[in-house]
Design a protein that fits this description.
The longest helix is centred in the C-terminal third of the chain and has 39 residues. The relative contact order is 0.06. The termini are far apart. Strands 7, 8, 9, 10, 14, 15, 16, 17 and 18 form a nine-stranded mixed beta sheet that branches. Strands 11-13-12 form a three-stranded antiparallel beta sheet. It has 52 helices and 20 strands.
Length: 1423
């Protein structure tokens, strides 16, 4: 190709360049130069010419040619040659693309890249091209069929063709950005939206037209409306055609979502409104939810059809229908317990059956405990459902088969309706209102207050209150008893009527009652908060107002549940609109808002129509540019956002090493503080579902939005899916230091209304415990409401100190260096590899200079007298001698601690340990000076170096490269030492002199090493420690923000945080989010101070808009969809008793069985002792010999598990003298009662080797002795308190008295055993209090039995009269507690020791002797 020169100066050069440039072009483009004397056919083919010139040379030549042509002077001329020259210049940069038709064949497209992109969209995938071609053909075919039917006439044909052409052209060049596009930039999915919607509408028009032309269609009448009649179908067809004509306007306003969003929305609405499902988390989730609902519907339909196809009477309900009732309850319960997201379930299945596929994935996520916790929760739910669903199915089958629903109609229905309304009204209206921050927006404080309501600082978890327990049990009764009974009752009655009369046909009737029953049961199980309102309105509307149009109760209830679902949306939309446009609280953000306020007044009727339409289709109403002009947006699912903008925290695991070292990536506050919101998400994952069920967040529903506000955390919580025992939510964390508008709205949340005393224009005050008129009025004109002021969550309290303030003075830096060196010595001495380092010849050879005492480390830039304690000024450096004079004691102390670990370590002055410690301390200080740019005297440089070492950036000098012999010297010694020194430096401010003691310092370092996580925030270990709930963490942060360059020491302490819970109108949130999306993406408003984000306290406009997904908003953290399960809430586990599973049931039965065996064994053992005492007492009553006593001994287990022998009667007699006070009291009591020395139950102990057998007395014998014991105690009642007991000498207590005391002790034990069997273990203590036996044994046996029987009968009267005697007994017990314990006798093997059990029994019978007197006295007084 040749070109004519435009001037004589540039022609030779241009000819040379063109000669060099006439070589092959690149594969896809070729630079062509043309002139008036050449044609395009002269262009060279790739095969001609040599291949010497490379692509780089061609680019250079092109640049030179362009520069030459641009420097050529342009003279105005009318010469044709000059005009041809200018044409050549315009065609100089023409570029063509080779469009390959077949392999080896192509055509040239003469467009440059930008011009081609302006004409066509770029498609890189063959699937996209094939799908586009198919859509073009389908649009043409359906358009032709629609036009062929003759629906369009005249101008409407042209309009229809334009709509069809625009849909086809959108496949070639789509509108970017589209009004319905949720993302910035090119959106591939939005390209196919218009043709797909066109095909759907045309197909719908053709179907409706075919139905309207049916000559004999089936007509169904419901609620007085004829469904599927030809006229109704024709009307629907005409409306669809008009809607198709409005296609361009609808696309302009963005009312059509992109096709995947529409599919999710449609499937979600079908599942929620028809089957009672929950919200979908995505496209796969929506398909999974609707599929399982259809599968359950098919199974239930088969059972119901088999039962209802033939008529049956009221006395014999078919077994198949009872099975259908059991299945519908069980399957609905199971579906309500499952999340719509199948990812966790699939992960559990893969982990169970194909674990080798997930091995790598588990290794990558081993540091995160959340996935495993989620799998365990799902496993618990599946195990529990296996048992609960079986039990529910069997119980429902039994109730249905009993014909109770048909036999008790309509009385049973009325009772169930009244009970459901009462329980629902109390549970979901009265109790939540009483617990609100401002009940009924009139009372200034909650009536039912939590324990933490008045606490300024929370130190423990939330206390479980009685009204929370009541709320939970009322919900359980409502969900699992009331509504299943109501729905089963309606199912039975309606199925009975369908079996007799098919109104809509057998199949339609069965499908309707099956769908209605499944939907109502699932809704009741998931969230029955609004069910009582729907039920009440259904009963009133169809039983009283419009009784004639009622179909049946089940279908009425089903239709009203759908209607009320839309009415709640309409109510919230109206509240949002009225609050936003209220003229007395207008918050204009820009001048446009002022004009919009005036022009919006005439369009109020249109606004109301938009509100109705938006409520029907569940679409948000967004304020246009933040003004009071509202525009309906496109339909969205509950999740709202189509794309997942989950925050990815930048740390050392996902950034390049060069960026970490040079730029310190991720050091902005938002990235570093996002971990606190991530930890808050994990805390909510454990407790949110349980707290919602306990009513701590008030009433809630699917799609509700809440704000958690504390001192520095402001989190936006969006409830997406609500199931039976699970809640899926998304958390959005806002900035710690927000904008001015955000701070104003946060202040509006935190400030109280209790001090407001205004009423209109005056301030008359308010009544006690009530709000003023102005405060109550203002609260009613807000789209948000405070539901709780003290909501407790587990989190971290943050303490930040300015490092510059802490290290400003040289003395403080000297302390830090001292702790730095001591930490290096500690980690060196305590390292398990210290012996290897000392014995390593290569290291010792390099460290030989450090072993010399005259070695001096001189480096004026590194070491300084101001911060180094071992610095020698005269030598201008640090020597081994000066180092040892300061740190040798610490080295030896650490070495001795090492010796305690059974490892010998030499630590004298010339030892290798001191040499290695000296070298490492020099290396550490030199690394700090190098990182500080050899300017450690400067505070900024010192802080820079300290932060560099803290994050692990060590710049090792040439003389210190010996440390690379083992990298653990850096990783395990120097690196943790610099971090530990910062922690010690922080603590020394509280106790400056505490760490002077080496033992205290050593223990402190040990404790901090185990309990405190000290690392840089960019280290992945920091995130892992926070998410693992470590007790204490510390880090050094470098903050560069708005010109500020500072270093902060951040300390985290695990604690409980208090939040305010604010419920926000969900339609307000959805509307403001939709407005921001339209303004920033479609209208491309880049103004950072736009009016739509200015503060508006009535709707919290700035807080809501700033929580949008990035880049629309600026949240600090956006969590993925997180599911909270009921089983992870500790307090509800105490109420429910944990999940129902076979293992838990087995454990429960086993514990009860072991407890019963233990109680029976104890009772049998005590009864055996009493029987032995009976036989022993009878044999010894006639024996009066007291000279010798038998050495009967019994082995008793002591506390340490070794048996101890009982003492003989001689030892008892010898030790009785030492127990002087108690013996005196017993003898005095015996003398006062004037009892004979021996009775049928007491006497001298026989000289035999048989064990001492106690006497047992039955309850019948106790009743027989009652009269005699009453007389005996009545005679001695006065003398007990009138006479003073004589003081006998030591050893006066005889063997007969001691034997009688032991017999009385055994009988009291028998009485205790009998009471334990009668009253049970827990009520036994109360029985003892009633009977007066709580002090233990005592007194005469018959007297004790009689007093026990009468005290049980008389109750509090006998107990009240015995208080004085109990004081005497307590005095004796206190005296006995001061006496010495029995001593161990050192003698032969046949020596017998007195057991602790015998001594306790003797003390008990002596105490009970005085107890019996008081009991008998009270009995005689009452008689």
């Amino acid at each position: 190709m040749a070109a004519k020169s435009c001037s004589g100066l540039g022609a030779p050069v241009l000819r040379q360049l063109l000669g060099l440039a006439s070589r092959p072009s690149p594969a896809f483009s070729e630079i062509q130069f043309s002139s008036s004397s050449t044609t395009t056919s002269e262009s060279q083919e790739p095969s001609s010419g040599d291949q010497a010139a490379s692509a780089l040379q061609q680019q250079l030549l092109l640049m030179v040619a362009r520069r030459t042509l641009s420097e050529s002077p342009r003279q105005p001329s009318q010469d044709p040659e000059d005009s041809s020259c200018s044409s050549a210049q315009r065609k100089l940069n023409r570029q063509f693309y080779r469009f390959i038709i077949f392999p080896g064949k192509w055509i040239k497209v003469w467009y440059d890249r930008l011009a081609l992109l302006a004409l066509l969209d770029r498609t890189e995938d063959i699937k996209e091209n094939v799908f586009a071609v198919l859509l073009v053909v389908l649009v043409s075919l359906l358009g032709f069929l629609t036009l062929n039917q003759g629906f369009c006439k005249d101008i409407w044909v042209l309009l229809f063709c334009l709509v069809m052409a625009s849909c086809q052209y959108s496949l070639l060049k789509s509108v970017q950005p589209d009004p319905a596009s949720p993302i910035h930039g090119h959106n591939k999915i939005i390209t196919y939206s218009r043709p797909v919607y066109f095909c759907i509408l045309c197909g719908l028009i053709l179907l409706l037209d075919a139905g309207s032309k049916d000559t004999n269609p089936p007509v169904y009448t419901m609620y007085g409306l004829k469904l599927f009649s030809p006229r109704s179908l024709q009307s629907a067809r005409d409306h669809a055609i008009v809607f198709l004509y409005c296609f361009p306007a609808i696309s302009l306003f963005g009312l059509f979502p992109q096709i995947n969003t529409f599919c999710i929305y449609l499937l979600e609405q079908i599942d929620m409104l028809l089957f009672g499902g929950s919200a979908a988390a995505g496209f796969v989730s929506a398909i999974y939810s609707i599929s399982r609902s259809f599968v359950v519907l098919i199974v239930l339909y088969a059972f119901c059809f088999s039962a209802v196809k033939e008529p049956w009477d009221a006395q014999h309900i078919p077994a198949l229908f009872s099975a259908f009732c059991g299945l519908i309850v069980a399957l609905s319960y199971h579906l309500s317990r499952q999340s719509s997201d199948p990812s966790v379930l699939m992960s559990l299945i893969q982990c169970k059956y194909v674990p080798h596929f997930l091995r790598q994935q588990f290794e990558d996520s081993s540091a995160d405990p959340l996935p495993e916790k989620m799998r365990e929760s799902v496993k618990e739910i599946l195990k529990s459902d296996l048992i609960v669903c079986t039990a529910a199915a069997v119980l429902s089958f039994a109730v249905s088969a009993s014909t109770v629903f048909l036999s008790l109609r309509p009385f049973l229905s009325i009772v169930l309706f009244a009970l459901a309304w009462t329980v629902g009204f109390v549970t979901h209206y009265i109790l939540p209102q009483l617990r609100k921050h401002h009940p009924w927006l009139w009372i200034s404080h909650p009536i039912l207050k939590s324990k933490e309501h008045q606490q300024r600082e929370v130190r423990d978890a939330a206390h479980l209150m009685w009204f929370e327990r009541l709320y939970v049990w009322l919900q359980c009764f409502e969900k699992y008893v009331l509504y299943p009974a109501i729905i089963l009752n309606a199912l039975t009655i309606d199925a009975f009527s369908i079996s007799k009369y098919k109104k809509l046909g057998t199949h339609c009737d069965i499908i309707l009652i099956t769908v209605a029953g499944m939907k109502l049961l699932r809704s009741s199980f998931c969230n029955p908060i609004n069910q009582f309102v729907t039920l009440s309105f259904t009963v009133i509307f169809f039983r009283f107002d419009y009784r004639d149009i009622s179909e049946n109760f089940l279908l009425d209830f089903f239709i009203m549940s759908i209607v009320f679902h839309k009415l709640w949306d309409l109510l919230q939309k109206l509240q949002f609109i009225m609050t936003y446009i209220a003229p007395w609280q207008i918050a204009w953000g820009s001048s446009f808002h002022v004009f919009a306020q005036l022009f919006a007044i005439p369009h109020s009727a249109m606004l109301f129509f938009q509100t109705l339409a938006a409520s029907v289709f569940s679409t948000p109403l967004s304020p246009f540019l933040g003004s009071v002009i509202f525009i309906a947006s496109y339909a969205r699912p509950i999740k709202f956002w189509e794309k997942n903008y989950n925050t990815k925290r930048a740390d050392h695991s996902n950034t390049r090493l060069a960026i970490q070292i040079e730029k310190d990536a991720g050091n902005d506050d938002n990235n570093l503080n996002s971990i606190f919101y991530e930890h808050l998400t994990r805390s909510l994952q454990e407790s949110l579902c349980g707290d919602l069920i306990l009513g701590r967040w008030g009433n809630y529903n699917t799609g509700d939005c809440f704000i958690l506000a504390s001192d520095y955390l402001n989190a936006f919580v969006h409830l997406i899916e609500i199931g039976n025992g699970l809640v899926t939510f998304q958390l959005r964390g806002l900035e710690f230091r927000g904008t001015y508008c955000q701070q104003r709205e946060v202040e509006a949340i935190t400030e109280g209304d209790e001090d407001n005393e205004g009423c209109c224009c005056c301030k008359p005050g308010h009544l006690p415990h009530l709000l003023s008129c102005n405060a109550a009025f203002n609260l009613r004109w807000l789209t948000w409401e405070i539901t709780r002021t003290q909501y407790i969550l587990e989190g971290y309290s943050i303490i930040d100190n300015n490092a510059a303030t802490m290290l400003q003075v040289f003395d403080l830096r000297r302390i830090l260096i001292r702790y730095y060196i001591k930490s290096i010595i500690y980690f060196t001495a305590s390292s398990p590899k210290i012996l290897d380092w000392i014995k390593d010849e290569s290291i010792q050879k390099i460290l030989q200079p450090y072993a010399k005492w005259h070695y001096i480390e001189r480096d004026l830039a590194m070491f300084n007298i101001n911060i180094d304690e071992d610095y020698v000024p005269c030598l201008q450096g640090i020597t081994r001698a000066s180092f040892c004079s300061v740190y040798l004691d610490w080295i030896q102390f650490c070495a001795r601690k090492r010796v305690e670990k059974a490892t010998h370590l030499d630590s004298d002055e010339d030892s290798p340990l001191v040499t290695l410690s000296f070298a490492l301390c020099i290396l550490g200080r030199r690394a700090l000076g190098t990182a500080a740019h050899n300017m450690a005297i400067s505070l900024d440089s010192f802080l820079y170096g300290l932060h560099a070492l803290f994050k692990g950036d060590f710049r090792i000098a040439a003389k210190d490269e010996w440390v690379f012999a083992d990298m653990d010297l850096l990783h395990k010694v120097v690196a943790p030492a610099i971090r530990m020194s910062l922690k010690l430096h922080q603590d020394q401010f509280t106790c400056p002199d505490e760490y002077e003691d080496p033992a205290v310092l050593y223990e402190a370092i040990q404790s901090f090493e185990e309990k405190v996580v000290i690392c840089h925030e960019g280290d992945p270990a920091w995130r892992s420690a926070v998410l693992s709930n470590r007790e204490e963490l510390l880090t050094l942060r470098h903050v560069v923000d708005e010109g500020a360059d500072e270093y902060k020491v951040i300390m985290l302490h695990k604690s409980y945080l208090s939040f305010k819970v604010i419920k926000v109108n969900k339609e307000c949130v959805r509307g403001l989010w939709a407005g921001q999306q339209q303004e920033l993406i479609f209208l491309r408003n880049r103004n950072p101070e736009r009016g739509s984000i200015q503060n508006n306290k009535q709707v919290l406009r700035n807080l809501i808009n700033s929580s949008c997904d990035q880049p629309l908003g600026y949240p600090m953290y956006v969590s993925p969809l997180t599911t909270s399960y009921l089983g992870t809430h500790s307090q509800l586990r105490n109420i429910w008793g944990g999940p129902v599973s076979l293992d838990n049931i087995k454990k429960w039965f086993r514990s009860k069985w072991l407890r019963m065996r233990k109680d029976c064994h104890a009772a049998h053992h005590e009864r055996g002792n009493v029987e032995e005492a009976d036989s022993g007492g009878g044999s010894s009553s006639g024996n009066n010999s007291t000279g010798n006593s038998s050495q009967s001994s019994s082995s008793q287990p002591t506390r340490d598990g070794t048996p101890q022998l009982q003492a003989s009667s001689q030892e008892v007699h010898q030790r009785a003298g030492r127990r002087k006070p108690r013996s005196q009291s017993v003898q005095a009591h015996t003398a006062l009662n004037q009892r004979p020395p021996a009775s049928s139950h007491s006497g001298p102990i026989a000289e035999s080797r048989q064990p001492f057998i106690q006497t047992s007395t039955s309850a019948h014998e106790i009743a027989q002795r009652l009269s005699s014991s009453q007389l005996s105690f009545h005679n001695s009642a006065t003398s007990v308190f009138s006479q003073s007991p004589a003081v006998p000498v030591a050893g006066q207590l005889t063997v007969q008295d001691r034997a009688a005391a032991m017999l009385r002790s055994s009988l009291a034990s028998s009485t205790s055993s009998t009471l334990s069997l009668l009253f049970g273990k827990r009520s036994f203590s109360s029985a003892l209090v009633i009977s007066g036996l709580s002090a233990a044994d005592g007194g005469n046996t018959s007297d004790t039995q009689s007093s026990s029987s009468m005290n049980i009968a008389m109750g509090p009267s006998a107990r009240a009269a015995s208080q004085g005697t109990r004081q005497l007994t307590e005095t004796c017990e206190a005296t006995d507690a001061t006496e010495p314990k029995p001593r161990r006798e050192a003698g032969p093997a046949h020596a017998i020791f007195m057991s602790r059990n015998l001594e306790c029994r003797r003390a008990s019978q002596e105490d009970m002797a005085l107890e019996d007197t008081a009991s008998q006295q009270s009995l005689s007084e009452e008689q």
